[in-house]
Amino acid sequence: MGTEEARSATIIVFSGALDKVMAGFIIATTAAAMGMEVTMFFTFWGLSALKRGGPVEGECERNWMQRMLGMMLPRRAADLPLSQLHMGGMGAGMLKRIMSQKNFATLPELIEAAQEMDVRMIACQMSMDAMGICREELIDGVEIAGAATYVGEAKDAAINLFIS
Amino acid sequence: MADETLDCTGLACPMPIVKLAKLAKTLSAGDTMTVTADDPGFEPDVQAWVEAQGHELTSLTEEDGVFSAVITLR
Fold this sequence. Notes:
The structure holds two protein chains of two kinds.
Chain A: E1 8-13, H1 18-33, E2 37-42, H2 64-72, H3 90-101, H4 107-116, E3 120-124, H5 125-131, E4 143-145, H6 147-154, E5 159-163
Parallel strand pairs in A: 1-2, 1-5, 2-3, 3-4
Chain B: E1 3-7, H1 15-25, E2 32-37, H2 42-53, E3 56-63, E4 66-72
Parallel strand pairs in B: 1-2
Antiparallel strand pairs in B: 2-4, 3-4
């Protein structure tokens, strides 16, 4: 805790699995609703959750390995696979149907709520560089920064989570 | 003194709390808001929210699975 009463929370989203990323956003939006300053730091597979999908404006420089990675990874948050029982998409489809019957917010809706609640979303610059993901591929309002920016927030925060 | 109502029936966690927090931001001390929700977790969650925010839970009732919370902002 910092010198004053800690009123902030940080969440590292390392996983790119739908269920895990949803858990991260549920905590993030709730913490924001409870008056905390919330920072989410997306790294490695977690970056897929921030992709906007669709055609990308401008040319993003990639080598053949990065192009292959781009083809194999989800193109947007709605396409993330489940961490378990994905079964080639059948498990994810069934779970989404159940969640929709129960009126759960979808991941895109949770992301929108987080943006409306001023949750700070940071994409890891080094992971973007490694995986060949460029700024234009990410949703609006995402900052690009490195580990020091995250640690700067985390050192004074009351809640620090790592979603792996 | 404003008295707002917010219908969160049909919404699941965390949306009722997210929505009531958004409404609270537009209100000031002394204002009240009446929030209805049928999310089973709403009862403990609204109490936790009120406590964390330092507001006052004026009443919390339940009828046929629908909770109604009256919150006075501090």
